[in-house]
Design goal:
Length: 319
Amino acid sequence: TRATAAMSARLVVLLLSLAGVSALHAHVAMRPSLRGAASPSLPLAAPQLRRVAAALMTAEAIDPTAQSEAPIEPAARSAFQTFSDSFSNLFPLWTALVALLGLFRPATLSGIPTSAFTGLLGMLMLSMGITLTIDDFKRVLTRPGVMLTGFAGCYGFMPLLALGLSKAFGLTPALTAGMVLVGSINGGQASNLCTYIAKGDVALSVMMTTVTTLGAIFMTPLLCKLLLGTLVPVDATGVAVSTIQVVLLPIVLGMSLNAKFPKAVKKVEPFSPIVGVLSTILLVGSAVAQCSAPILAAGLKLQATAFLLHVVGGAVSYF
C-alpha cells in the first residue's frame, strides 16, 4: 500500500542518519502508536532521534502519501545512471561502428585534426581523474609487483606475440615490423576507460599507463632492435611532455576537483564514462580515417593479425 511505501521511505531516511541503528530502533518503537497500541519508550541517550521519529510518524499518520512522491530527483539520477552504464557498456560496439565509418567513409571523420588529439585525450583522462583520490594511488603503490607484472606483459609477452602472429599469417617484413611496433608500445588512455567501465582498479590502470609510457622511451627502440634488427628512434622529450599533458595533468586536476568539490563532482560523475567514450571513439574514427587507404590495401591478413594480437593478449592478461 502507499502508506507502507511511505513508512519504508521513513525507515530509509533514518537508516542513513549518523545514528542509524538507534534511529531504526526509534522507528520500530513508534510503529505501535499508529495502531493505537502503547508506544514503548525510546532510548534516553538520543532525545533528538525521538523528536525526529515522532515528527516523521505524525506527518505520516496525517498524510501517508505526502512523502511517498518526494524521491523524484534520485529516481531521475538513477535513470540517467542506468543510461550512462548502458551506453558505456556498449563501448566496443560504438568503437567498431565509428572505425568502420572512418574506414569506408573517411571524409566523415578526417576533418578532426591531429592537433585536437591532445585535447580529446586530456578530456578522457580528466573524466577518469574526477573519480580518483590520492588514497587510490597510495593503495596501488603498496603492490609494486602488480605493476611489474603489467610492465613485463607489455614489453615481454606482447611483442613476442605480435612477432609470432605475424610469422603465422605470413605478413610481409614491413607489416611484421609494424605489428612488432604495435606490440612494443605502451598502454593507452583507452585502457583506463575500459577499466573504469568494467569497475576495475582505475588508479592501477593509470599508474600502468604512466609507467609503460615512460618505459616506451627506451623499451620500444630496444625491442625493435632485438626483434627486427633495426633501431626505431623515439622522441624522449616528446613522450615525456605528452605524458604530462594527456595523463598526469588531467588526472591531478580531476583529483583536485574531487577533493575540493566532492558534491559537485558526484553530480557530474555519471557523465564521466559518456565523455570518455565519446572522446575515444572520435580519436579512433579520426585515426582510422586518416590511414583508411593503407588499411584496406593491406587486406584481411593484417586486420586478423591485429585483432588476434589484442584478443589473445587481453585474454591471457585476464586469466
